[in-house]
Amino acid sequence: MSSSVENEDIQEKAAHIGMRLEDKWQSWRERRARGRGDNVAVLPFTGYGTNGWVRVLGRVVMAKEGAFENGKVASQILADGIRGWRNFISPPVANAKVVIGINGEQHEVTADRGGVVDSHVPADLPEGWTTVTLSCEGSTPVEAAVYIVPSDIKFGILSDIDDTVMVTALPRPFLAAWNTFVLDEHARNATPGMAVMLERVTREHPGSPVLYLSTGAWNVAQTLTRFLSRNLYPDGALLLTDWGPTRERWFRSGMEHKTSQLMRLAREFPEVKWLLIGDDGQHDEAIYAGFAQRYPEHVAAIAIRQLSVSEAVLAGGRSQAKPVNATPGIDWIYAPDGAGIAAQLHELGIINGS
């Protein structure tokens, strides 16, 4: 065997170490939970679809009897503010077989290594909001809300979360830990004017899908959902990720996650133009510019929230990208809050009135 082949083999094995260690750790936690008598619980997340298919999202974990009701935390203390600590500590069920119920038909899908269900299922569902069910190992089916985008819709909204609609005022390296371990959803602040701006956009474009794209982990999904609801943001699916190791690297790439989700939306909704909303921290401008260069026909406009000086310091600085000239024909909006963005969207004709 040549030295180059040997080196590649060593690199391949090293790349897998983190993934194998995590799998063994989670497998041990699952066995321990089952030994304690814990049950399998399916946590449903909001999904979306259109004519002929639906994207169903959820997570399978081990939990004590009564810990969750329809996938939501039952404890009043947790429901009132101490967010789903159980969501974090509950062991995921790797490769779980999950049954999705749609219009009386059952579809069996397999969760990933982290217990996450992210399945594209053929279905003919009525347009608008509806529900599907998920169950695992004979558990009581839980309902997941899904939004079926009407076939005539040509406009959609996709927004980043951290530093765009939600401000935590923490150094970016600590943000993932904060989102995971800090229990109180009230510790997060809504960005001024963003909820009102998004409501105006959805009112101007009724039926348009709203999606929230973040590098946050799936075990914070219910916390983020409650935060968005409490602050009157439009309902929509969360597109999150898992920051654990993969075959290629010790930690997943947030930029790759966002880019792949955008490309997926371009394939799933070939007739839709998206209003892309982010901030001028580290990566959103570059990610959105790259998407606009590749799929200009899928971009209605790009709105960037300008961080304050202190926020930019905590975020690790402002993006050095200068994307406006690199995307001819695409309108870029810059403003520090939702009101400023709304005013410029009005100038572009994306929203009207007040």
Would you spell out the secondary-structure blueprint of this structure?
Blueprint: H1 3-35, E1 39-50, E2 52-63, E3 68-69, E4 72-73, H2 76-80, H3 85-89, E5 97-102, E6 105-110, E7 116-123, E8 128-136, E9 142-148, E10 155-160, E11 166-167, H4 172-181, E12 189-190, H5 194-204, E13 210-217, H6 221-230, E14 237-241, H7 254-268, E15 273-279, H8 284-294, E16 299-305, H9 309-314, E17 332-335, H10 338-348
Parallel strand pairs: 1-9, 10-13, 10-15, 13-14, 15-16, 16-17
Antiparallel strand pairs: 1-2, 2-7, 3-4, 5-6, 5-8, 8-9, 11-12
Helix pairs in contact: 5-10, 7-8
Give an overview of the whole structure.
- With 354 residues, this protein is of the alpha/beta class.
- The chain has 2 domains: 39-148, Immunoglobulin-like (Sandwich), CATH 2.60.40; 155-348, 3-Layer(aba) Sandwich (Rossmann fold), CATH 3.40.50.1000.
- It is 33% helix and 30% strand.
- The protein has a 7-stranded mixed β-sheet with strand order 6-5-8-9-1-2-7. Strands 14-13-10-15-16-17 form a 6-stranded parallel β-sheet, sandwiched between helices. The chain has a two-stranded antiparallel ribbon with strand order 3-4.
- α8 links the parallel β15 (273-279) and β16.
